[in-house]
Amino acid sequence: MEGDELPEPVCETFQIQDFYQPRMVSEGFRFYHLEVEVEFVYLLPDLASRFAAQGIIHTSKREKRAFLINAGALLHDPRAKHVVRDVLGEMGVSSDGDHEFMVEKILSHAIAMASDERNRDLKVLPMGVSISCVDPHNDEEWWLMVEGLEKVVISGKPTDCAICTGEIGVGSKGARMPCSHVYHGDCIVDWLEDSTECPSCMAKLP
Q: Which residues are in the RING-type domain (predicted)?
């Protein structure tokens, strides 16, 4: 990828097939089972590939969550756009201008599903949303901060990763913070997406 060229964000909506309809739905109420999957794409390919070769980071990640939303909140509420923006925000997708089309597309598909005669008897409308967009941490300063972590090979005896509570075995690779605490590489990278403090002692990265 050259210069400042960025991939266009993608949002696909669809009705989930073979969805099990729950029995315990109050009479007169209707809901959307909104299943959202987001693929975050890391750019800066030179840095990304170098980290991947070191076993320190994945070049992309996926998040998937399901939301149960009252149908009225998407079909009749004037704040429907805010409801969808909140869902996207919980998934880590910003609601800036480049992503506003996602809000419109999700609401449009919700209306189409509710109007479809084939869905007339469904109490829960199963809707899927698949999104691909640039990771919010796609900036060189953040990548270089991650690159600055010391890569270590565990020797002597295993140590525990305080983030996932799993063991980092002897001979395995880890990432050491400046405060000397060691974690799995992918665990500390995920942690640093939300905080620049060590999860063990709260020391900040310089």
A: 161-201
